[in-house]
Batch of 3 targets.
Target 1
Amino acid sequence: MEKGAAAAEVPVPRVAVVVFLLKGKAVLLGRRRSSVGDSTFALPGGHLEFGESFEECAARELIEETGLDIDKVEFLTVTNNLFLKETKPSHYVTVFMRAVLADPHQVPQNLEPGKCDGWDWYDWDNLPKPLFWPLQKMVQEGFNPFPIGSNS
Ligand code: 8DG
Ligand code: MG
């Protein structure tokens, strides 16, 4: 078998970078439009591109999806997410970052309406349902993206 053709058919894990954009006690979420997790509330983010740092990817995805400039981008955690029962099975190593708005007066725009119904701020104590399951799992396990000592 020709080597290149075989390689193209082998599924591989991909890296995603997603962002807890924090504003007071709230985080930015949008309802997904996707074959994976359709209609569930998820964080902004997307695929890590070749040569990018996690911070660069986070800032680029936020601009592309919401038009927001972010600041104080920090690594939080990473999870391993299998979507093997989907029509197109996938596997993501998802890197979770946190950040704040560079200018607190900025308002999110829905720049990829084919992928998201729109962005809004949700209090951490009153998150919308259903959450995209990788996020739901973290919440259930007691994960908190806010800095220790913040008023969340
Ligand atoms: P891109 O090609 O524009 O870079 O990617 P995208 O179209 O924005 O990708 P995405 O689906 O938003 O994110 C890639 C994968 O990241 C997604 O299929 C599964 C994984 N992922 C999680 N949790 C979350 C989350 O909360 N939000 C987003 N957007 N993706 C997540 O595991
Ligand atoms: Mg995305």
Target 2
Amino acid sequence: MSSDSDCIFCKIIAGEIPSFKLFEDENTLAFMDINPASTGHALVIPKEHAADVHAVSEAAIAQTVKTAKMIALAIDRTLNPDGLNLLQCNGPAAAQSVMHFHMHVLPRREGDELKLNWGLEPGDMDAIGALAERIRSNL
Ligand code: 5GP
Ligand code: ZN
């Protein structure tokens, strides 16, 4: 499986950088975003390194969407949000900051006014870790 030694998500897959892991199978990994745009913000990635929607294989994108659906359900059970976005960004102009294909699973609240380019603000790691445990228990 292709990997990029300079890629932060490949390092998370390899366990070289810690993460609040939610789910892992042979081809995909789901974990909490450490700069959450909303409470419960999670990411789902293929283990195969590919920069964006153009580079990712059809198999990897299908596997990633399948895992994202499972994570969306677990987040729904855990947080009962008013809504939820599955979002995927390609290129800096579309606010892609990590060049390893990923899907955001973004719980939404009525009136939260979340914008597409939300900016990166570090979250409370203890709270994110506790939430990850709750979401895992709802998988
Ligand atoms: P993008 O802006 O590329 O669509 O999304 C990249 C996401 O990765 C951002 O929401 C950012 O907070 C998240 N991110 C960047 N570095 C790390 C990291 O080291 N760990 C985790 N868990 N998330 C990260
Ligand atoms: Zn990568």
Target 3
Amino acid sequence: MVSTQSVGVESGLKYLSESQDALQSRSPNQELLPLTASVKSRDRLEIGGCEVTALVEQFGSPLYILDEETLRAACTQYRDAFKRYYPGSSQVLYASKAWSCLAVCAIAASEGLGIDVVSAGEIHTALQAGVNPDKIYFHGNNKSPEEIQLAVESGCAIVADNWLDLETLAELGKLDVSSKTGGPIRVMVRFTPGIECHTHDYIKTGQIDSKFGFDPNSLDEVFKFISQQPSLFCVGVHAHIGSQIFELQPHDDLADIIIQALTKALSYDLPATEINIGGGLGIRYTEADDPPSIEDWARTICTAVVAACERQQLPLPKLLCEPGRSLVGTACVTAYTVGSKKVIPEIRTYLAVDGGMSDNPRPITYQSVYRVLAASKMSAALTETVTVAGKHCESGDILIKDAKLPNCESGDVLVVPATGAYNYSMASNYNRVPRPAAVLVKNGEVNTIIERETYQDLLRFDRLPVGLRVQK
Ligand code: LLP
């Protein structure tokens, strides 16, 4: 792998990892590019042993390129760290909202992870991917009765977020709906832990003023209600503080709060033996981002939970967590092809690509900052400062402001790293742009995991009203 460059000349090579550690021991969330990223011949970026430009030639552009090794490394690091640092039993769930599709769910499950789902669509995806329903946990602040019924009938656990969830579950319990699976209805109680953390306002969830979870002051009432429902089996409590978090302290603080909630559940004689501390570990989108490693995150949580249990003199509960971004985020890059170039002398150069806010809505939604590389000019000096614009009819559709790139022209392939989480899952068809394909790469082999949408797909649900004639 080429990982050095001439002194004083910056090139795209600077984005490759400088770590000499073995691939599997690097924490993916601390890297900018997938673990297998390299530049071997012809100055071209390779992911999973495949040249990005060759993938674009074969599968079209834009293209999500998912590196299997990076995804698996993140799964095993989470799983193994919880085994190493937690003396009780543990279960890592993949928060599939980050990227819900058959392949990602199946890979996570094959590494022993369960799945966190938030809609009937995500439940179907996880089930179709072959995930054991015992390991599927159904979240959501406004689950429909049909969604709850599907989850219960399939044997998933329900994370009760509010009174409506509990009332619906109690009704289903009376109807003996759970009999299809034979087991009782497993319920976790989600509450807001009252912890603030430093992240974008839209992705904070732990503060008291949040739409998610029970107010902690109502927990007595909640546990009492559940204890009066013979069909509901309260397996534990859940809290999640937010997303893209770089601090460890809020997670440390959470341990005592969640163990106190568990103690309260036990005081109502509920069979509560699980706690779920949510997800939230941040990833590196730019060199300025410095998240803790998966191992440090897990160690902090495990140590804090063990200490909190000692203080409360409680046997260790089963410890669950549900990361999304830090499992899949770094594993994927998006490749685009450059189209038009607009030079406004002394003001700005816009380089437009063939995707944008429809395949990556994060910059326009959260002002997220990304890096960009020229896939076939990896060692060329970064001489230009350009703004990479999307193709959508919206001035705010800018993917990267003031990006440093070598000189790029129409036809060049650009790569935006760290697009595995909340990109495909939040993609849209704005301007009737078909969603891109996604390929999985490993050791030079490539498989399509999501087909590119066609124009026919875009019209699939359109109907012309009867009798409407279009004058030609
Ligand atoms: N558990 C719960 C209850 C959650 O609400 C979330 C994320 C997670 C787990 C996973 O969090 P993670 O490990 O991925 O940080 N669309 C936003 C992120 C929204 C996060 C929603 N909840 C973004 O693109 O930044």
